[in-house]
Amino acid sequence: MFPVKGQMLSLQGPREALKRVIFGPGTYMVPREDGLIVVGAISERDAGFAEGLTPDGQKQLQRGITALLPVATSWPPMERWWGFRPCTPDEGPLLGPGPLPGLWLACGHHRNGVLLAAMTAELTASSVLGVPLSPENDALLNSFHWSRF
């Protein structure tokens, strides 16, 4: 696994200005009930563990806002943040029993950690507890085994 740096920001839009998530090339905007709009997300594969926001990353987010919802370029920015996403070479997670006895893996989800959290929890908990998996879920778990690398 290796780090992929991500940058995001939020805007304060008018309440209910955006009623659903919108996606575009490299950018998405997620509305919150209070009018806050979360804008993401930059992926910097070559940043290593370099900390902090970058002008280029923030400009890329601004270009995404302009492309997706031009009116939002006038909304005030509220927060800007960055972090590291654990990533694997194929950007798929590592799931299931690890290479050491008693080690279980549920990591490396890259940009999709929030989206895959429920399925990851279900597969991992079932496996750890010895609950038989459906053939589909067993195949899914096996496709993300660490030995694929």
Short description:
Residues 2-125 form the FAD dependent oxidoreductase domain. With 149 residues, the protein is of the alpha+beta class.
Could you walk me through the main structural features you see in this protein, from its secondary elements to its overall organization?
The chain is α+β, with helices and mostly antiparallel strands. It folds into two domains: 2-87, D-Amino Acid Oxidase, Chain A, domain 2 (2-Layer Sandwich); 94-148, no CATH class. The protein is built from three helices and seven strands; from the N terminus they run ββββαβββαα. The protein has helices at 55-68, 113-129, 135-143, and strands at 2-12, 22-24, 27-31, 36-44, 77-87, 94-97, 104-107. The strands form two sheets. Strands 2-3-4-1-5 form a five-stranded antiparallel β-sheet, covered by helices on one side. The longest helix is centred in the C-terminal third of the chain and has 17 residues, at 113-129.
List keywords for this structure.
single chain, 149 residues, alpha+beta, D-Amino Acid Oxidase, Chain A, domain 2, five-stranded antiparallel β-sheet, two-stranded antiparallel ribbon, elongated
Mean residue pLDDT: 92
CATH architecture tag of the largest domain? 2-Layer Sandwich
Question: What is the name of the CATH class of the largest domain?
Answer: Alpha Beta
Characterize the main sheet: 5 strands, antiparallel
- Specify the structural class: alpha+beta
- Rg value: 18 Å
Head-to-tail CA distance between termini: 10 Å
Strand content: 25-35%
Strand tally is 7
Order of strands in the sheet with most strands: 2-3-4-1-5
Portion of residues within helices: 25-40%
**3D shape:** elongated
Task: Report the uncertain regions.
Answer: none
Order of helical and strand elements: EEEEHEEEHH
Instruction: Tell me the number of helical segments per DSSP (H or I, 4 or more residues long).
Output: 3
Keywords: Oxidoreductase
Pfam family, one: DAO
Domain FAD dependent oxidoreductase: 2-125
GO molecular function, one term: oxidoreductase activity
